[in-house]
Amino acid sequence: VNNYRPISLTSISCKLMEHIIAKHIFHHLETSGLLYPHQHGFRAGLSTTTQLVETIHDFAMTIDGKQQIDVIAVDFAKAFDKVPHNKLVFKLERAGINLNIVKWIKAYLTNRNQVVKVDGHVSSPLAVLSGVPQGSVLGPLLFLVYINDISAILEPNVRLKLFADDCLIYSTVRNKDDQLRINNSLQALSEWCKKWNMEINYSKSTYTHITTKKSVLLFPYVIGDKCLVNVTQFKYLGMTITQNLNWGTHIEDVCSKAYQRLCFLRKKLEHATQDVRLIAYKAFVRPVLEYASVVWSPKQNYLNKQLERIQR
């Protein structure tokens, strides 16, 4: 049940109005420089790939400098569902959004109800008291506005990368003071979450020491009163990142996923023409092999052979 989310089915006229308002808000935020520059979610010209390029570049520069960078991957629990409407309206007003538009959004969020329909049976209506409408035009933008000020809470030299609610906090660590600066930022994040009704999923939030040094500085990290789990690799935006930035594990995952899809297509398209098979391959297999490849494109022959084997 926890894997399901209600989708807002709005009318055509409402969608048109949402597009008009979203365009106005985006223009205001972008021209005013209010949006956090390292938030790449739901923004024109930015994507998971651009976010990964920037992030991995930071990691690689640290490793090339024979240093250590500690990375905390923070997972928010049902972030889109927990946004309080009154606090969202406050942040819209604080961002300088036209008050008439803010009033329209307030009315748009008020008195919403949802029902569940299973096998022809419909539940009683349930009032929606929080959250941005998922599946709507405005929902993603409203969430960006709500989470935007999270960048202001961090200590100096502690970096933050956001893709919607996917959050990475990291910094170069040379000594105990650097570790303390990260932990102070994590405590500030905990206080921010309490103030703005966000919840951290501690079981999915981890930290990794990224370095090729033999002597790793093994510092612990805490959010609130919860000690985070140390892992040697983690998933970020669909990419497996290891503590030494070796792409072997990620490429194995990519090849495994692509091979599964290829086997499925071979079975289902056994009697299809060559043209149909090629279209299916380009639609379902090649995107898996090429996703963010600008970041992890391998130099080792054995990794290249793994990728080429899928394409023969």
TrEMBL record:
It comes from the Eukaryota. Residues 1-241 form the Reverse transcriptase domain. PROSITE patterns: RT_POL. Pfam families: RVT_1. Signal peptide: none annotated. SUPFAM superfamilies: DNA/RNA polymerases. GO terms for biological process: DNA biosynthetic process. PANTHER family: REVERSE TRANSCRIPTASE DOMAIN-CONTAINING PROTEIN (PTHR33332). This is Putative tick transposon.
